Amino acid sequence: MKKLLLFSFVILFLSSCGSTQTSSEAKPSKKTLKGTWQVTNIRFVGEQGLYKANLFDMADSACFKNSEWVFIPNNGSGKYSINSGSQCEAVTTRIHWSFYEPGDGTYQFQFKYVDEKNKPIDAANRGYRSTIDSLEANTMSMRVKTTYEGKEFDVILSFTKISEDFAL
Predict the structure, then answer these.
(1) Which of 4, 15, 94, 120 has the most CB atoms around its CB within 10 Å?
(2) Residues 5-31: pLDDT tens digits?
């Protein structure tokens, strides 16, 4: 009986020492991303100073404020739309997206620009990756690494889900 009790205690102790994952470490779900999202905030993390960041070879980071992103999980298709403004040209571009696990405990959102048939439009087949800082049912935060005048910094895009609906 003592051996059984001791064995049970050892098993309980070992199982309590196992690692647990927080929501930011858990593998992101494509179903969570399903729908239409809006970039509600953009901030810079790095050395003090003024930065100019051209994101995804498309536009200045400021142009992405209030942009809408559509994600369709069953086939990885989507799009984003930038509104016109004083410094920004209105544009809508289709993307093919997925998640990537680089092996360091983080998860990344990756995408390529595609045509209506989901074929890459870049002859070199280039794409973009951003680290997912958090992905919840209605909020997401992505970190885009970039450089300006030789200085590295991150652009943090904060998203809010505005609808479960999606349309390309």
Answers:
(1) 94
(2) 333 333 333 333 333 333 345 788 889
